[in-house]
Amino acid sequence: LIIVLDFGGQYNQLIARRVRECNVYCEVHPYTMELQKIKEMKPKGIIFTGGPNSVYAEESPRCSKEIFELGIPILGICYGFQVISYLLGGSVKTAPVSEYGKTEVEVDKNSVLFSDVSHKTICWMSHTDYVEKVPAGFQITAHTPVCPAAAMENEEKRLYAVQFHPEVMHTQEGMKMLSNFVYKVCCCKGDWRMDSFVETTISQIRDKVGTGKVLCALSGGVDSSVAAVLLAKAVGRQLTCVFVDHGLLRKNEGDEVEAVFGPQGLYNLNFIRVNAQERFYARLAGVEEPERKRKIIGEEFIRVFEEEAKKIGAVDFLVQGTIYPDVIESGLGKSAVIKSHHNVGGLPDYVDFKEIIEPLRLLFKDEVRRAGLELGIPEHLVYRQPFPGPGLGIRIIGAVSAQKVRIVQDADAIYREEIAKAGLDKELGQYFAALTNMRSVGVMGDERTYDYAVALRAVSTSDFMTAETAQIPWEVLGVVASRIVNEVKGVNRVLFDCTGKPPATIEFE
Ligand code: XMP
Hints:
Elements: E1 2-6, H1 12-21, E2 26-30, H2 35-41, E3 45-48, E4 74-77, H3 79-87, E5 91-107, E6 120-133, E7 139-143, E8 151-154, E9 159-162, H4 174-185, H5 194-209, E10 214-218, H6 222-235, E11 239-245, H7 253-261, E12 270-275, H8 277-284, H9 290-312, E13 317-319, H10 324-332, E14 355-357, H11 365-374, H12 379-382, H13 402-421, E15 430-444, E16 447-460, E17 468-469, H14 474-487, E18 491-496
Parallel strand pairs: 1-2, 1-3, 3-4, 4-9, 10-11, 10-13, 11-12, 13-14, 16-18
Antiparallel strand pairs: 5-6, 5-7, 7-8, 8-9, 15-16, 16-17
Helix pairs in contact: 5-6, 5-11, 6-11, 8-9, 13-14
Subunit structure: Homodimer.
Protein name: GMP synthase [glutamine-hydrolyzing]
GO molecular function: ATP binding; GMP synthase activity
């Protein structure tokens, strides 16, 4: 185990993730964690993170000096570097100019932290304060033209510190440095795997829940599925999963979720499927404005969920499939609202529960997928592409109706089938069919038609904040278009959206 002590930096979970990539288990804790607790956890190493403060500011986060006497190796990063210097008697100064971005750093190759690292290596810097004089007993092991001490160490006490950020991708050999710390300094074996996470989490959940009752809103998406299965494995029938079918899911999706989680499925849990399609269609009838539609779907979802929860009565725990990027995003929240991104499955107000369990809070999406595979969740669920909470409600431009849902479901199913057949499904970030609100004139079998146009979208993206149009071969698009107009009643035209994000968004509404 490596403990990451959080001093308020932006990249704290990224550090933890990098350590886990070395197959070493890692947890992030606040810098205020008590020494006694640290000792009890017997970590093989501790990492101090960066942080926004200056060590001299009165309210700046500092830990107790005794941490250096525990005999546990420590690596300080950025602010963590300055805290170590400050606490051990070095001096930290504010530089006239900040050092920010990719910087060439010259490292001392004799330092174990830099073994196998190039003598001159590109690192990511982001600091204004710098260490002017390192504490007694420390040696400077790296510098840049403007930063005299870019790294220092006290080999005997196994204390190391770097001014730059080895955890970010821009530090080209950062992973090597972190693995040197983890393997060579802390002597970790690197035998932790996702199965250990699964095993530990299940046993922690069991301890926490005891004989309590647990309620989970299952959407069929990766995160809530993995969270539900972890709970099911831990506490079995003490868990009740409520799956609200709002009638805006992809074709057959409701049945697929039921097949996996329901009574004939793979897990021994209480599964309640609420078929609320008609209710949602009724509330959405005639509503055209996208944000209003999102709001209605979100509110109605919560209402349905609450009604089910009331039937179940008081529970002890409510499960949320929150993953780490959700934690960061909700922390920022300063940017303009483009779309309200109302996540169906958001926290209901009136469910009677005592505590929330978020078993995936520390994981990134790909880690959640690995955990899902470990838990034996079928691949088609684990690798499901992102699907918005409001579902097809925001892929039908304008008012929603049962007929339009049927059209977009059928068209989308054909599109997905052909994309998979062409072997393209794994390389695309997101791809789907949407129903435009446009009807146009066509001719089919010598008859005039006046039907809807379906739009196809395919994008590649790594973070869903920006996206590029993916190039789908014309032959594939041709097959999809012809199948859609032939097989889906009510459609006589198929369009391909070749706009990136920005200026468009990924979804249509
Ligand atoms: P946009 O359309 O904003 O989509 O470019 C970016 C990503 O977010 C998903 N998305 C949503 N997810 N509730 C969700 O849970 C929403 O209201 C919502 N709107 C968009 C979208 O599918 C894409 O992955």
